[in-house]
Specification:
By secondary structure, this protein is an alpha+beta fold. It is built from 16 helices and 6 strands. It has a 4-stranded mixed sheet with strand order 2-1-3-4, sandwiched between helices. A two-stranded antiparallel ribbon has the order 5-6. A hairpin with a 5-residue loop joins strand 3 and strand 4. Helix 6 packs antiparallel against helix 8 and helix 9 crosses helix 11. The protein is globular.
């Protein structure tokens, strides 16, 4: 395995208001990995990233030795294997599994309300559209106002109205966010991080939607400051933390106050993954899903999210026998076990995401139009 000196500093290609760029930056800051952020501009760096990773999705990461990586989840796992200390992924098998589950939930389900708040409301769309027009569109020779309009139109067609969120679903999507605030406020008003006195992968996972969307965009940030000040404070605390600077203990086992988050995963996120799997298996690029009593119409399929479910199952199967029993009991208690295994066969093969983090074979959502 390469030495830290041979691969650092790294370059992160993304956006300073990007969900997953923020997640990766948070991880690097906590882990003590020196990095430089470079805008993934449409004309110059996006083709370079696509050439080396197979996709221009952000963020991409280039090591000092010239290798390229993509997708935050496998990137983090790669760094944790390469440099085990200081550890961000817990060494305790149960804590590791449930931290990976929370990371996946934050990545793939909280994405929905995060994109909604940014692009549905004019205040968010004006802020983000102008920022991205000036940042990733810096080398596109068009008027800023036109670039802002084009970006906003694409994001709404791809990730909000174009991904099953119509006006009828707005209250339900915003309720996801408010429940998340309530769940995290209850935890973070009693301790500094989700698993104890220092950050873990669970914190890094939630940093994606919170630091660069909910705590940044005008509408959700106002809600957070009013309703969940401990979450607002945690976001800054996490960004400022370095594992090498101070020591802190993790709690033993899985905290009981994670229960409402696990309930949410069992009632909403895993059933959505099952609906997505059925759509991919049937070859339906658009599908309707009934999740938590809410009907999403015309959602986009995601082969990547089939891989996410496959990975969750693999992480469970990697547990020892006693840990599997304990994990299953907790998953059953919170309604997660049945949807995790509802479909015996997953519509995926080794050509989908099999080369991550060094090559992208499937985007999270296939938005090209």
């Amino acid at each position: 395995m390469a030495s830290r000196e041979s691969i650092c500093p790294v370059t992160i290609y993304g956006s300073s208001i990007s969900y997953f760029t923020g997640k990766l930056e948070t991880y690097c800051r906590i882990k003590g990995i020196p990095y430089r952020l470079e805008a993934l501009t449409a004309g110059r760096t996006a083709p370079l990233v696509r050439e080396h990773t197979g996709s221009s999705q952000m963020p991409a990461l280039r090591l000092a030795d010239g290798r390229w990586l993509s997708d935050t989840t496998p990137i983090i796992q790669w760094f944790e294997q390469a440099f085990p200390e200081p550890a961000v992924i817990p060494s305790n098998p149960l804590q590791r599994f449930f931290s990976l589950l929370l990371e996946d939930y934050a990545d793939e389900w909280l994405w929905r309300p995060a994109m909604h708040f940014r692009w549905y409301y004019q205040a968010g769309a004006r802020f983000a559209g102008h920022h991205l027009a000036e940042e990733i569109g810096a080398d596109v020779a068009l008027p800023t106002a036109l670039k802002r309009w084009m970006i906003t139109r694409r994001q709404r067609r791809g990730y909000t109205a174009g991904d099953g969120i119509t006006r009828d679903q707005v209250p339900a999507v915003e309720a996801i966010y408010r429940r998340m605030l309530e769940q995290l406020q209850a935890i973070l008003q009693t301790r500094p991080f989700l698993l104890g006195e220092r950050p873990s992968l669970a914190d890094v996972g939630f940093s994606g939607p919170i630091f660069r969307h909910f705590a940044l965009d005008p509408v959700p940030a106002g809600i957070m400051r009013r309703e969940a000040p401990a979450v607002w404070e945690w976001s800054a605390r996490l960004w400022n933390y370095r594992l090498g600077d101070t020591s802190g203990e993790l709690l033993a086992g899985i905290p009981g106050d994670w229960g409402p988050i696990l309930d949410e995963i069992g009632a909403h996120y895993l059933p959505y993954l099952c609906a997505n799997n059925a759509a991919v298996a049937a070859g339906h690029r658009r599908f309707d899903a009934e999740v938590g009593g809410v009907r999403y119409r015309g959602a986009r399929w995601s082969r990547y999210r089939v891989w996410c479910l496959q990975q969750l199952r693999a992480h469970f199967n990697a547990l020892g026998a006693d840990d599997q029993l304990a994990a299953r009991a907790l998953l059953e208690r919170h309604g997660c076990w049945e949807p995790l295994w509802r479909q015996a066969e997953l519509p995926i093969d080794d050509s989908v995401c099999g080369r991550l983090p060094f090559h992208v074979d499937a985007k999270m959502i296939d938005v090209y139009d």
